[in-house]
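Um, can you check?
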Amino acid sequence: MNASMPAWSAIAKGDELPPLELRLTRADLVRYAGASGDFNPIHWSDRTAAAVGLPGVIAHGMLTMALAGRLVTRWVGDPAAVRSYAVRFTRPVVVPDDDAGALLELSGKVGDVREAEPDSCRVATIDITARFAGKTVLGRAAAEVVLPE
């Protein structure tokens, strides 16, 4: 364990994960569309986004979810430690057509730690908050992770 990693045996309810800020640009949306196959024009066309009543081009919900998951995997150090992960999409992340993009602010808190049977491992529930422009964009976002020994 390096100096930046937590003492896993001391992790307790209420502990906060280091926050993470990520910027999403239109180029990120193009790359995600290519990787995912989701070429819905609300994710790249201002005209289409406006026609369907959106405030602008929006990030793919699954991209937003994946980025919020990065908060947890960065903290625990191993993506395979994630047992479950779920969110509700509550608001879109509007990505402007500029170099700055949209700022996604991510934070997390340990909601629970328990011993899991039959594995005899410690499992933590992480409550995740994802904000864009001061508003929560994911609701009931939580991941369950196996804590390292």
Notes: The first strand starts at residue 20 and ends at 24. The chain is about 20% helix and 35% strand. The mean pLDDT is 95.
